[in-house]
Design brief:
2 copies of one chain form a homodimer. Helix content of chain A is 26%, strand content 23%. Chain A has helices at 21-37, 57-71, 77-80, 183-190, 209-218, 260-278; strands at 5-11, 42-46, 112-121, 124-128, 137-139, 148-156, 160-164, 175-178, 194-198, 221-225, 243-247.
């Protein structure tokens, strides 16, 4: 796992060419998988200003739901995502198979697990961490209930004791923001120090490879931003607190347009390679 | 467009995790798009020997049909692909939007077009090249009928005259082979001089970057081979007429497994960048 924070920004118009709910689910699943394969920490869905007012608010929240569902371990999905009609095709989503989705119901001391806070008393909180027979672990802190947190297993005896904690040496999934804000304002929320704007109208990656590599090397919070099906990024991202580079990661593209999910995978592949140069 | 010949090899087990015909169609479409985005010349579907005898013969031919359909210009699809039930979801396939799929019914002298040979007489062959009112062009050669060939427009008058020809400076789509043969024997059919075997068990791309770049540079016929959903490539590809390199193009992968379509896009992205270094 690389040590930098990497976030990916996609527009709320991402699904607009598809009306079929099953395909919308599948297409979002492609993004979820790409994030996990390449250890991305945060996905931000911003408002595509080239499109009419609030046209895609619903799609934005749908994507956030699907990506959240994928990022939730199998044993917590039913609790964390109550049945609703938009989620009826989640069965086709490919599993992430990340370290934060363990499949073993037996827990070990020192292991990290995501857990769902079921109920609380004066001494602490009962947490579902995916053990057999829906047995609950206990955390000696008073946490909000009906939420997913990460825990470390402290003791395995008659009772399993956990405390809130997250590992820092394995990939632990991604966070999701559906901002309903412009790209610029969404970037300000995240506050990266280096923004990579992908567009076919910029210099090609091969022509600026060394400069690009050095910038990736010296950045600590990278944001990679993508346009939607209708246009490249329409907002001007220059002149803010972050360093900006525009790059075409698909030189000599054979097709007139590149779809957002294709650009996401292709770009993350190259940046992942560079991040591994650096580490 | 790069000057080297690039072929991609995927196993016939590619679709085996999906039973839904619509999703099988969509998943194959992801591959077709990736080939066109990255100017791939040939896709070969080989027999995955890790799977039971002939289990995926049908899937192999289905993929070839879908990829062929995508590679055919819109104006020839109905002629070249008569209705059959396996093709009922082709409406969801994204268009390639490549130079060999023109959308203008007016043809110009010097232009290249794919055409379907409709009928033949002693003087030559009538060809549908997508003009208005289903007007046919004429080619002064006797060609087999009911086939798709590439033509150059020689004369535009009362009659449009074409001759068989293909451009060499723009991407002109991909060829498809469904071999029903092992990977080794499929490679022998294509006879590349450099084979890139993608596997997570090999050296990572970042650790062998310079060596890899030099080999790509000196090769003229590259074959990039991918495993299927069940396993890495099981055949031994060393010791043949080609130079072989094994490489992991996704260092530090966050997920336990990488899906074939994810590996295809990620790998082609890096190799496309390298091919553009070289040109």
């Amino acid at each position: 796992m690389h040590k930098k924070q990497v976030s990916v920004f996609i527009p709320d118009s991402f699904l607009s060419e598809t009306t079929d709910l099953k395909l919308k689910t599948y297409k979002t699943g492609v993004i979820g998988r790409a994030l996990a394969v390449f250890n991305v920490n945060l996905i931000v869905i911003y408002k595509d200003l080239s499109q009419k007012d609030d046209k895609f608010v619903k799609d934005s929240d749908f994507m956030a739901d699907i990506l959240g569902y994928m990022n939730t371990p199998q044993y917590l999905r039913k609790k964390a995502y109550p049945i609703k009609s938009e989620l009826k095709h989640v069965g086709i989503l490919p599993p992430l198979r990340t370290p934060h989705h363990p499949t073993d119901p037996d827990v070990k001391v020192g292991e990290f697990r995501q857990g769902f806070t079921v109920k609380r008393n004066k001494k602490g909180t009962f947490v579902d961490i995916g053990m057999n027979n829906e047995n609950l672990a206990f955390c000696k802190e008073q946490l909000s209930v009906n939420k997913v947190f990460s825990f470390k297993v402290i003791k395995v005896a008659k009772e399993v004791i956990v405390e809130p904690d997250e590992p820092d040496d394995v990939y632990w999934g991604y966070d999701i923001l559906s901002t309903h804000k412009s790209l610029k304002n969404s970037l300000k929320l995240v506050n990266p120090d280096f923004v990579i704007e992908t567009t076919r109208y910029a210099d090609t990656i091969n022509s600026i490879f060394n400069e690009f590599e050095e910038k990736v090397d010296s950045a600590s919070k990278l944001a990679i931003v993508f346009g939607g099906p209708y246009s490249s990024i329409s907002e001007e991202l220059d002149g803010f607190s972050w360093d900006l580079i525009k790059v075409n990661t698909i030189p000599s593209q054979g097709t007139e347009t590149v779809r957002t999910e294709e650009a996401v995978l292709s770009t993350l592949s190259i940046i992942n390679m560079l991040l591994n140069f650096v580490d």
